[in-house]
Every structure is written in structure tokens, then in C-alpha cells.
């Protein structure tokens, strides 16, 4: 009987690096596999050389041989920012679909449990709010976000059928917008953009009128949810929403960041990107029932911690990668 040996793909990214920290803290061995497309060695520098941690540079679109038995796999490998996943949409699609297939094959071969980081993007521009797992979504399959949204939907299908056809213990987390320290300053997502803009005195780029909403979850809460999903007895249900139901307009977020940073920046409106969802808010009742999980960190507190992180980076002159 081997101890816990956990493969974290995308482990050098924002969410993945926090997950690696948590798993090592829980006493697991951790293999972190990442292509370093949007993640950085800087995110895991404190783990390199630590007992029980191993980093491997690898693209999950290709099959992966960990070289040792693994008992659990968290598949987080995929660029998550619309600005980043649109740079090479075909590779984003390959990452989601071929990556999921390669890792499911690995889970099957090792008898490992596997958790997929799916996304609220599977709901597209939703026609109901909050979004429960039973909602099938409203996704444009041929728009600029399709490589990500449909890639993640395809990955969910693979998880469903590997479970059904091959008995793989495959679980799906539908992650809603998550933020916190170690987001890349040039990542392009709204929380990091607004904070970096406020701290550097440049205009906050609100897309459209800023009336669209998102629900923001602090990274520690998300890691707790992912760990609980992996540890839960085999779930009878399919995907599980993980996110913070607190819903804000982008204009509210901009004003909150300006107030917290005391920044002299103004708000500059930019065109709304095509297919940008108008609203997003998770129904997390299933996660509550199944995992006993609910987020604890309110946006105001999570923003304070994230602003402190970016302020330190900017102070050190590390504003880009
Ligand atoms: P991130 O960009 O910081 O991390 C993604 C990591 O995956 C990076 O380290 C990147 O280098 C790596 N990667 C990308 N393509 C790869 C490939 N082909 N092979 C190996 N590694 C690859 O983003 P994040 O916010 O940490 O997101 C992590 C996961 O969670 C992603 O799968 C994302 O889709 C999912 N997710 C995140 C959010 C969020 O709000 N943060 C929301 C929904 C889903
Ligand atoms: N957004 C914005 N300004 C920015 C970046 C994003 O107003 O500088 C908006 C974007 O149009 C979207 C919301 O903020 O409505 C969240 O965008 P993000 O890229 O963070 O995540 P996603 O759209 O994938 O939820």
C-alpha cells in the first residue's frame, strides 16, 4: 500500500500552486506537471527541492508517464484567462480534450481517482441565475470563447463516459471565477487587471457598461472545495459547482478596488468582448450537501489579501512575467 501520491497538472499556475501547497501540507507526495504556458516556476519556487515535491515540465496534450504510481490526479492544466486562451485556440482545445483523455487513461491505468477543473463557462451566457448543475448552458460553439467553453464541455463528456464505461472514479468541479495571490499581473482577468491598474495609477479598463456580473471566490476557499471533492465518498451526482455566490457588477468591483487602494485612477470604458456572459452566480447547494463546503472569505477580505500581494510584487518591480 503506497501513501497518497498526487499528480497536479497545471500545478505551476495560480490555483494549482496553492493546491500543491495544501497537498504537501496534508502529507501527500506531489508531482506537479506543467508546460509553463501561463504558470511560472516563481509560483512553485518555494517548493522546489522540498521533500515529496517533484516538478516535471510537460504538455498534457501529450500522454504523461509519471514514472511512479499515482493515487490521485487533479487536472488543472489549461489557460484560464480569455486573453490567454484565445492566443492559440486550437492548442487550448487540445489541452482540454486531449489533456483530459490522456489523464483519464493515466487514472485508469493507475486505479487513481481524478478531479477535473471544469468551469462556470460551461453555462455560457446563462438564461437563469443562479446556475444549478442541472442547467445545460447557453454556449456559442463557434465564437471566440468556444475553444475554452466547448473544450471544457468535451472534457466533462470524457469524464462522464470514462466513469460510465471504464469505472474510473472521475469527478468534475465546475469552478466559478476565483482570484487571489499568484495570479499573474499580466493575466488579463478582471481582478488582477483592476488591482494592477489601480496600484500603478492607470485607468481601470471596464469592458462594456460594467453592468455584467461575476461571483468571485477566494483561492483558499476554492482549494478547500477541490480537496473535499477528491476526498468525498464516490459522488452519486455528476459535476459540482464550486464558487462564492456573492454577485457583483464589474463597475462595483472597479469602485471597490479604487476605494481599497485609494488610487487616483479613473475608470476607462472599453468595448465589451464578443460573447461575454452577462451574469454568473453559482448555486452551491449541492456542494453544501455533498461536501459540507461553503466559501468563508468575503470579497472585501480576499481583495485586501490580493491587493497586498500585488503591491509587494510591484514594489519589487515584478509587474510582468
Ligand atoms: P492559470 O493560467 O494560472 O493556470 C493554468 C496552468 O496550466 C498554468 O500553470 C499553465 O502553464 C498550465 N497549462 C496550460 N496549458 C497546459 C498544457 N497543455 N499542459 C500542461 N500545463 C498547461 O489559471 P488558473 O486560474 O490557475 O486555472 C487553473 C484551472 O482551473 C484551469 O484548468 C482553469 O480552466 C480552471 N478554472 C479556473 C477558474 C478561475 O477563475 N481561476 C475558473 C474556472 C476554471
Ligand atoms: N473585464 C473587464 N475589464 C478587464 C477584464 C475583464 O471589465 O480588464 C470583464 C469581462 O468583460 C467580464 C468580467 O470582467 O465581463 C470577467 O472577466 P474575466 O476575464 O476575469 O473572466 P470571465 O469572463 O472568464 O468570467
From TrEMBL:
Listed SUPFAM superfamilies: NAD(P)-binding Rossmann-fold domains
Main location: Golgi
Membrane association type: Single-pass type II membrane protein
Domain NAD-dependent epimerase/dehydratase: 6-243
Subcellular location: Golgi apparatus membrane; Golgi apparatus, Golgi stack membrane
Alphabetized UniProt keyword annotations: Decarboxylase, Glycoprotein, Golgi apparatus, Lyase, Membrane, NAD, Signal-anchor, Transmembrane, Transmembrane helix
GO cellular component: cytoplasm
Any GO BP annotation: D-xylose metabolic process
Any Pfam family hit: Epimerase
Cofactor: NAD(+)
Gene3D superfamilies in UniProt: NAD(P)-binding Rossmann-like Domain
Alphabetical list of CDD domains matching this protein: UGD_SDR_e
Gene Ontology molecular functions: NAD+ binding; UDP-glucuronate decarboxylase activity
This protein's name: UDP-glucuronate decarboxylase
Native source organism of the sequence: Rhodovulum euryhalinum
Origin organism lineage: Bacteria, Pseudomonadati, Pseudomonadota, Alphaproteobacteria, Rhodobacterales
Amino acid at each position: 500500500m503506497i501513501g497518497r501520491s498526487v499528480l497536479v497538472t497545471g500545478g505551476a499556475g495560480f490555483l494549482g500552486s496553492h493546491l500543491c501547497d495544501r497537498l504537501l501540507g496534508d502529507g501527500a507526495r506531489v508531482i506537479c506537471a506543467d508546460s509553463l504556458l501561463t504558470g511560472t516556476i516563481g509560483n512553485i519556487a518555494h517548493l522546489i527541492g522540498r521533500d515529496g515535491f517533484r516538478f516535471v515540465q510537460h504538455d498534457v496534450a501529450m500522454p504523461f508517464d509519471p514514472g511512479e504510481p499515482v493515487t490521485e490526479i487533479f487536472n488543472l492544466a489549461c489557460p484560464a484567462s480569455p486573453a490567454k486562451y484565445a492566443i492559440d485556440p486550437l492548442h487550448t482545445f487540445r489541452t482540454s480534450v486531449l489533456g483530459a483523455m490522456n489523464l483519464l487513461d493515466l487514472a485508469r491505468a493507475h486505479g487513481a481517482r481524478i478531479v477535473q477543473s471544469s468551469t462556470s463557462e460551461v453555462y455560457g451566457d446563462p438564461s437563469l441565475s443562479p446556475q444549478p448543475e442541472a442547467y445545460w448552458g447557453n454556449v456559442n460553439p463557434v465564437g471566440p470563447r468556444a475553444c475554452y467553453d466547448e473544450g471544457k464541455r468535451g472534457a466533462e463528456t470524457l469524464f462522464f463516459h470514462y466513469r460510465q464505461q471504464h469505472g474510473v472514479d472521475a469527478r468534475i468541479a465546475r469552478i466559478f471565477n476565483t482570484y487571489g495571490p499568484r495570479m499573474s499581473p499580466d493575466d488579463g482577468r478582471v481582478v488582477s487587471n483592476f488591482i494592477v491598474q489601480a496600484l500603478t495609477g492607470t485607468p481601470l479598463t471596464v469592458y462594456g457598461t460594467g453592468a455584467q456580473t461575476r461571483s468571485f471566490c477566494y483561492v483558499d476557499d476554492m482549494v478547500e472545495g477541490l480537496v473535499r471533492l477528491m476526498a468525498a465518498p464516490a459522488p452519486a451526482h455528476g459535476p459540482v459547482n464550486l464558487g462564492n455566490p456573492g454577485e457583483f457588477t464589474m463597475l462595483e468591483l472597479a469602485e471597490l478596488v479604487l476605494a481599497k487602494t485609494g488610487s487616483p485612477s479613473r475608470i476607462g470604458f472599453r468595448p465589451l468582448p464578443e460573447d461575454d456572459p452577462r451574469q454568473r452566480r453559482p448555486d452551491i447547494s449541492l456542494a453544501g450537501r455533498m461536501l459540507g463546503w461553503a466559501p468563508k472569505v468575503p470579497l472585501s477580505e480576499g481583495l485586501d489579501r490580493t491587493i497586498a500581494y500585488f503591491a509587494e510584487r510591484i514594489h519589487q518591480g515584478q509587474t510582468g512575467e
